[in-house]
Every structure is written in C-alpha cells, then in structure tokens.
Amino acid sequence: MLTAPACKSENKEAPAGGSATATATGEKKAAGAKIALLLPESKTARYESHDRPHFERKVKELCPECEVIYSNADQDAAKQQSQAEAALTNGAQVLVLDPVDSASAAATVARAKQSKVPVISYDRLITGADVDYYISFDNEKVGKLQGQALVDKLKADGKASGTIVMINGAPTDNNAKMFKAGAHAAIDGSGLTVGAEYDTPDWSPDKAQQQMEQALTSLGKDKIVGVYAANDGTAGGAIAAMKASGVNPLPPVTGQDAELAGIQRIVAGEQFMTVYKAIKPEAEVAAELAVALAKGQPAPAGKVNAKVNNGQKDVPAILLAPVAVTKENVKSTVVADGFWKADEICAGSYKDACATAQLQ
C-alpha cells in the first residue's frame, strides 16, 4: 500500500477544466499533490460511470489528502488541450490523459514536459510523444476477439461466405486503428466479404446509424449476414438502422465496452457480443501509478508488463486482458464482477429476456 503525502482531496469538476481551489467557506486549501484526470468524451458511457469514479476512489484510498483535477473534453481536442493547460497552471504534478486525438495530444505532452510533469497515456495511446507510461488493454486483441467471434458465429450459422459491414471507431483514436487491424486479421481470409466499411467520427451512434442506413441501401437489407461494430454505441446505431428498415431477424452484431444498453441488447438477442474490459482494475492501476509518480516514486512493482511503440519511443505499458461476452457468459463476467447488477440489466422490458437468460 502506498503511503499518502500531505495533500488534500477534492473530486469536484471545476469550470473550464480546472479544479476548485477553495473550500465551501472560501478558505484556501493546503498545497499538496495534485493529479489531473483528463477524459475524452461522455458519449461512451464508461468514462463517467466507471473510469472517473473508480480512479477518484482509488486515489482517495491511497492518498486521502490528494486532489484530483477532473475534466471531460466532450470530444473536443482543443478543449482538452485547454483543460490540460489549466491543470498544469493549477499545479498538477501528474497528467492522466485519455486523448480525444491521439496525435494532437503530443503538444499537451510536450507542454507537460516543459513543467517536468509526467504523463500517463490512459486507455488510448498518445502517438509521437515522450509519454512516460501507457495503461490500456491489448487493443489489437480486442479487435481480434470481435472479428473472430463474428466469423465463428457466422460459420456456426452456415453463413461463412456472406457479406458483412464494418463500422469502425473514430479515425482520430489510435485505439480504433488497433481494433480495426485486429478485426481485419480475423475477418480477412475467413471467406467473408466486407461489402461496406466506415470510420465513425467521434464514435457517434447517430453517425453509425447513418452509415448503416447507407450500407443497407447500397448492399440490400437481405444481403448483410453480419455487422462488425467497434463498440456498443456504434452497435446500437447500426441495430437501430436495421430495425427501422425492417431487418428481421437481425444479423449478429459485435460491440465493445459492455455498456448497460449493449448488455441489455445481448440479453434480448439484438446484439451478439461485446468486449468486456474490466475498467475498475484499469482505473485503479492508473490511480496507483499516478500517486506514485506524484510522490516521485517509480511504478508500483510488478505492474509494467509490456512496451508499446508510439512512433517516438517504446513506452512502458500496463496492458490488461479483454474478454468476449455473449448471452451465455453475461452472468459469469460482468454480473459476477459487479460491473453491472442483474437488477440493472433486467429493468423494465428486459425482465422476461433476463429470465430466459437465467440472470434472475
């Protein structure tokens, strides 16, 4: 267990990406270790519902007096750069940065280095920059899990030579490039034909829905045997487009992040699978590393298990293992881990589907 420096805890989000510097009575807080957590967007539910609270809780556990300067960039790279600048001006001693744009975030890293502030690239790899550490999952493996699950499902259904649609993630997200590469490694040469493929700006479900509508128009709704969707949000958009077009039954659709809506669709039989990335240990190890760096200590022993080249250097990395989730193992994965409770999944119209899936 890491011991705590003398610093004060504050987890409130401040205007313009900064952190509050006074108590409710207006008194200035004692100076101490400040850690900035800079997350990229809120369209993907995980960041506000899992990453942020788990990170803040772990920091408070390890360092009760530490201050977390929290900001969410709402998918705006310029806003994120301003938030990082504000955090540095406010005395942040470590930046934990999940970049909106993996390449443009290099400027933020350079600015942090000028202030001798270490940067942890969180979840998404910052490219072309002198990043100190990288914490994520094996993202190419995520894509391979998705692609292979789709290939295996279609083969099992006797549709190994049909046409699929690929709806990838944001072109500015280096992780999306890795997911795509992993998926193609499984799909290319499998006998399946990629009839249409799209990159989805901002990971937007609405844009994914429009892309799926285009694919249905160009390919024909009866010709698509499967859909590779890079995450649960884009999967939801693709499924909405197919349901609106009268596609029945729905073809297998992949996903990622084990969002509540995605798990509910899986239980209901609308989405085939998702990739569960245990965000709690990811956020917790980021908090452990950030507290250590804020104290001038090395990474906690035994945590760093890889190196990932970001175009400038081999970045010391902590890579966690993703897990494919289908209806058959929802209970033994996301429910067993407490990621979602059965009563959350089984609310409202999903009650009957949950009974069939033996979640309740």
UniProtKB/TrEMBL annotation:
Residue spans of biased composition, Low complexity class: 14-25
Assigned keywords, A-Z: Signal
Name of the protein in question: Sugar ABC transporter substrate-binding protein
PANTHER family recorded: D-XYLOSE-BINDING PERIPLASMIC PROTEIN (PTHR30036:SF1)
Region called Disordered, residue ranges: 1-25
CDD domains according to UniProt: PBP1_ABC_xylose_binding-like
Family label: Belongs to the bacterial solute-binding protein 2 family.
Periplasmic binding protein domain: residues covered: 35-297
Keyword Signal attributed: yes
Location of the protein in the cell: Cell envelope
Pfam families: Peripla_BP_4
InterPro entries: Bact_Solute-Bind_Prot2, Peripla_BP_I, SBP_2_dom
Signal peptide region: none
